Structure formats: structure tokens, C-alpha cells
């Protein structure tokens, strides 16, 4: 049996939050682990529930909310869906990383140099 997708619904006008919760609650394999009404409580609720997804409001600028950067640095496996239904706009935010490579000289000096170089980055 697969684990349910854990979702926190936050920072929406109450009516919108209620609609999102009602829609998702009927989906099999989805668990609403928390609802947050006050933006200042979002970080604490995410820390306490460790959801797979966070649903928040998208402000009028359509810019990535600073909250996304903070949370995705702490919880890179979480995804954030920002909704602006009054503008028919939604944006997904998630973290990813790049894998880098650098040739290393095959010698004791080369290995030590690479370790020191990577330690500085």
C-alpha cells in the first residue's frame, strides 16, 4: 500500500481554503494534514507536519513568494502550489539541484587539492 500524499493548505481566503480542502479530501491517496489561516504560522506547521505539498496564495505580482525560498531550502523534497483563482493563475515551485563534475589529477596532491577546493565552495 502506498503512503498518502500529505498536504498542508495555507494562507488562502477562508472560502478558497475550504474549496481546496473539500476537493482534495475526496481524493483517494490524499491526506490533508493541516490547514493554516495565519501566514506567520505556515513555517511552524510545515516543520511539525512535514507535508509533501504546501498550497498557498499567489500574490498579485505572480512572483515567487519569499516563503517558498525559505521552506524549499529547509525541505527540498516538498512542493509548493501557489494559487490565484481570481486571476485563473497557479504556479508550482520546487527545489532541484545540479550535479557538477571536475577532473581531478590522479595523484595524492591532486586528490588533496580537489578536497581543499571543494571544501572552500
Task: Summarize the structure in words.
There is one protein chain. The model has no long low-confidence stretch (mean pLDDT 86). The chain has 4 helices and 5 strands; from the N terminus they run βαβαβαββα. A 5-stranded mixed sheet has the order 2-1-3-4-5, sandwiched between helices. It has one domain (5-94): Response regulator (Rossmann fold), CATH 3.40.50. Helix 3 links the parallel strand 3 (53-57) and strand 4 (79-84). It is elongated. The protein is α/β, with parallel strands linked by helices and 121 residues long. Helices cover 35% and strands 25% of the residues.
Quick description:
The chain has about 120 residues and is α/β, with parallel strands linked by helices. The chain has helices at about 15-25, 40-50, 65-75, 110-120, and strands spanning about 5-10, 30-35, 55, 80-85, 90-95.
Mean pLDDT: 86
Distance between the termini: 42 Å
Spatially, the strands of the biggest sheet line up as 2-1-3-4-5
Q: What CATH first level would be assigned? A: Alpha Beta
Give the ordered list of helices and strands. Answer: EHEHEHEEH
Indicate the CATH topology: Rossmann fold
CATH architecture: 3-Layer(aba) Sandwich
Task: Spell out the CATH superfamily.
Answer: Response regulator
Characterize the largest beta sheet: strand count, sense, and whether it forms a barrel.
5 strands, mixed
Note the beta-strand portion: 15-25%
